[in-house]
Amino acid sequence: MNNIIYMDNAATTPVKKEVLDAMLPYFTEKYGNPSSIYNLGLKSRKAISEARQKVANCIGANENEIYFTSGGSEADNWAIKGVAYANKNKGNHIITSKIEHHAVLHTCEYLEKNGFEVTYLDVDEYGMINLEELKEAITDKTILITIMFANNEIGTIQPIKEIGKIAKEHGVYFHTDAVQAIGNVEIDVDELNIDLLSMSAHKIYGPKGVGALYIRRGVKTHRYVHGGAQERNRRAGTENVPGIVGFGKAIELAYENLEEHNKKLIRLRDKLINEVTEKINYVRLNGHPEKRLPGNVNFAFEFIEGESLLLSLDMEGIQASSGSACTSGSLDPSHVLLAIGLPHEIAHGSLRLSLGDFNTEEEVDYVVEKLIGIVDRLRQMSPLYENVKEEK
Ligand SMILES: *Cc1c(COP(=O)(O)O)cnc(C)c1O
Q: Can you tell me which family this protein belongs to (predicted)?
């Protein structure tokens, strides 16, 4: 077994060997600027065009509807600000949910300070939005609905097709942050009525710092970066050629192996969920029991601090993530765990284990065994747990 067991694939993933091999020539011998008209430039231009075609194929889009960005955060910013400012004359209302990634939430908060109004939809205990509430929130000023495809913390997958249908019926644009969904879920932007969709390479075994925004042809939006004529005149800057090539390769591999990947991850995920909930008391699964990402596991352990849990796991070589935002200097539990109704003290004991292509069954066994010991040891030190034991 490796020294490190990496179960934080929702935070980022390692670059696959095939992806790296595809990228390498574009750092060295094929270094031309894609905007240059000579042969070396043409090589880079061709590589970008092939990658664009691959990304488009994977989501059922046309290649000229794909715009490369620096990642998921930029794609979210562009989608939301672009539509907001370009459709101001039609209305100033945006609908989103309380469990979005900060790239969406903070963009919406910024727009609120600049004359826009935002409705933040509640979610139920599983992290699902309510479609009736969505319909009721739409007014004649609504220009955009932005709801994430799948949640990065608890893995809940939203009813995207139904949301798309509602948006279309009301003549409102629909954007979805699909950073966690691509490579895990079949996506067809036409079938799902999606107008804009954000993607990122580093969550699907591609490089960091590259992603894309799908913009359906005809959607009214603003250009995002001013300067040169790159990305059909909408996002200036010399392209990240190796990154774009890597992204194209990564998404192609993800969809070639989708069925196999999902089967494996679901098996590992369910084993982890079943064993932990059977062998440890006072633990609950956060997120939806069925409509969840194949690699997502999120537990709330009562009478435990997520931070201590993470540190103890790290000492055993296990890399995971907690549901509190302590790392960012705040002691508040994540907005997602609070939105599904977890009380503060329970949200604090949350642990996200996100599985990926490189995890094995032996690793799951090892993690379960270590978790049992660590949870027991931490609870022995908890005064709250003492009270519970005495009550019994
Ligand atoms: C990781 C992530 C992002 C941000 O993507 P970057 O490429 O890291 O900027 C946005 N949304 C979700 C749901 C994510 O998981």
A: Belongs to the class-V pyridoxal-phosphate-dependent aminotransferase family. NifS/IscS subfamily.
Residues of the chain with pLDDT under 70: 1-2, 324-331, 390-392
Residue 337 lies in a domain: yes
Is residue 106 situated within a structural domain?
A: yes
Number of domains composing the chain:
2
How confident is the model over 301-328, as pLDDT tens digits? 999 999 999 999 999 999 999 875 555 5
Domain annotation covers residue 3: no
Is 202 annotated to bind ligand?
Answer: yes
Residue type, 361: E
Asked whether residue 139 is assigned to any structural domain, the reply reads yes
Question: 72 CB under 6 A from ligand 1?
Answer: yes
Q: Is 127 a known ligand-binding residue?
A: no
Ligand 1: residue whose CA is nearest its atom 3: 72
DSSP conformational letter for 382: -
Residues with a known catalytic role:
326
Confirm or deny that 238 is annotated as ligand binding: yes
Which residue among 74, 97, 99, 101 has the greatest number of ligand 1 atoms within 8 angstroms of its CB, and so is best to mutate? 101
Give the domain-ending residue among 256, 279, 303: 256
* Ligand 1 neighbour 152 (Cβ under 6 A): yes
Task: List the structure tokens of 217.
Answer: 């042809």
Cα 46 to Cα 41: distance, rounded to the nearest angstrom = 9
71 lines ligand 1 (CB under 6 A): yes
Residues whose CB is less than 8 angstroms from the CB of residue 9 and which lie 6 or more positions away in sequence, other chains included: 203, 295, 354, 355, 356, 359
- Give the end-to-end CA distance of the chain in Å, rounded to a whole number: 40
Domain that holds residue 333: 258-391
